[in-house]
TrEMBL record:
The active site is at E327 (proton acceptor), H328 (proton acceptor). Its EC number is 1.1.1.23. Zn(2+) binds at Q259, H262, D361, H420. Substrate binds at S237, Q259, H262, H328, D361, E415, H420. The keyword Cell cycle does not apply. NAD(+) binds at Y129, Q191, N214. This is Histidinol dehydrogenase. GO terms for cellular component: cytosol. It catalyses: L-histidinol + 2 NAD(+) + H2O = L-histidine + 2 NADH + 3 H(+). The lineage of its organism: Bacteria, Bacillati, Bacillota, Clostridia, Lachnospirales. Keywords: Amino-acid biosynthesis, Histidine biosynthesis, Metal-binding, NAD, Oxidoreductase, Zinc.
Amino acid sequence: MRTVRLTKETRNNLLEDLLKRSPNSYGEYEGRVAEIVEAVKEKGDAALFEYTQRFDGARIDASNVMVTEAEIAEAYEKTDPALVEVIRKALVNIRAYHEKQRQYSWFDSRPDGTMLGQKVTALAAAGVYVPGGKAVYPSSVLMNILPAKVAGVDKIIMVTPPGRDGKVNPSTLVAAHEAGADEVYKAGGAQAVAAMAFGTESIPKVDKIVGPGNIYVALAKKAVYGHVSIDSIAGPSEILVLADETANPRFVAADLLSQAEHDEMASAILITTSEELAAKVSMEVDGFLRELSRREIIEKSLDNYGYILLAESLEEAIETANEIASEHLEIVTKNPFEVMTKIRNAGAIFIGEYSSEPLGDYFAGPNHVLPTNGTAKFFSPLGVDDFVKKSSIIYYSKEALDPIHKDIIQFATSEQLTAHANSIRVRFEGEDKDE
């Protein structure tokens, strides 16, 4: 891996380089995506099935677009029972973590005749996109469906592209069934996103679309935002390891490569105060590359967006980590909990040498759908909050409104909104002495 000494210039160059990975930088695809979205909006199933034939090579129609109970049973037969058990164990942890995020309606009554509050209501329908083809991620199925389930969403539908045989990957189906998806549809790409956003004859419209996908999926979610809500426009995966001389170089190298194997646009960065650790990590990376199956992808990822950054101090390393705002941040230092308190921007923070990033991907419980491309500065991981909405509750008796009604009239009049002022005034007609 390339090793670079941290300066203001190298940090700025790195940040500029990483931002090129954002889906917002792929303008040449937007026209194609807009065409697909508009076609599905206008033609419904006809466009959806045509694109499924063209892009996935599968003959799907209204009679077979929805996964049947028989297909789910077949998926269980084809999935290793040991994997089914692991899915169930992970599901317990993920559900338990998200149950702690639940919020409840609250009301505050006062003796003066006022009652204020907040009503928390789950969304009526949510749509989950799950990649297909070579990308088979039952873990993502759990991470996207379970928060919606815990939130109390009435209907959760899932879409995923079929293979040429018109079938869905068995482990994906098993995970969807275990997590509690109400319906699963054989549709992928921008056309599936559009189908959930606008509804077709076969696929119902939802209120929010979540889930990862390729550039077409990301841009389609961006295109339909406003018609429905979305979780985020996800970019390529990324990991940042913040380490000092106490870190195990073999562990650090393994963790960096765990993200670099996702795709050629993935980013893997080590920031360290130790030149010795930097050299050892680079050597360990070279050793692992001779063994790992996705070597070609990893090498391209590291060539494009892999860095070892040498910092003069731990404070400089922390400042840079906050500026990068990585999706995954591992802290492997002498006092990792102290460092954690100084981290302002990160999607998920892994503390200590045995809290490896894949632990969060699969099993610990926190959601692995995380903000990327620096958006951890203002976005949060997917959670129960993403599947609820909140309504303000306001109640005033006449006795409570009386002492403040003139203040409201004055405020409204100052903004020249006389109808607003009148709405309050009419309730005290004949009572105010200055009338």
